[in-house]
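Sample entry (245 residues):
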Amino acid sequence: MVAHAMSGVLQSAKGVESSPSITTLRGPNGEAVKTAIVDAGNRGKLTMSSLSCGTRNIMVATMGHHDEVATLHQRVVASFTCKPDPAQEPAATLHFPLVLDLPGWYAEYHEADQIGITDGENGHLTLRTMPRTLNVDLAQVVKPMFEAAGAQNVEVGVMRDGRIPIKVAVDGETALGWVKHVKCPTTDAFVIAIASDDATADLLHQRVSEARCIAKGEPPQQWPPAPPAAPDEPAEAPAPGQAAP
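Predicted structure, serialized as tokens:
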């Protein structure tokens, strides 16, 4: 529900000044590739296209003033070739640097560049990493990234308590939450929270703010898989002489 490959384009997104236009470009084998184009002021236009390759998500980002840049971007996207190595796919795991106190939560999905965890009811966290050297105003790139992922009516608030509040509409439903950047010694954490209400969003922010960074050489926190779905209850047998529904 949130944009893939967020951290890969943050450096390019410095100076973004407007909402993006969302379009598609011709990708490998003629498939449509969702693309966001943003006015970056005196730096020209920032164009971002998201492609999948095995368990990884690849973001192609270009910036410039001239038509040649757009032509180059289209050529790169169309010529992208994915040949994942099956032997290395299991090793494409994210080493998220925080340890979170969220008992009962489980992994909804586990990808090379992000982990999605949830309680199955009221909250969802997307866990990503960011390079320590990255210095960018997240408030400037949150809206373009969500809209590139298919969200509508994205509202981005002013940072408070170390988080940027957000409100998004996905598949006709409105959700609220926040994004947060946490610095750790090895790498930085980038967290996107989606919650059913303000109280849950506040609680999740408290848990993330209280999380500790993993030590050097310490394995990342592991999240259990989603619990099996409850079996359907058997239909009641009709009473004697009564027709089945």
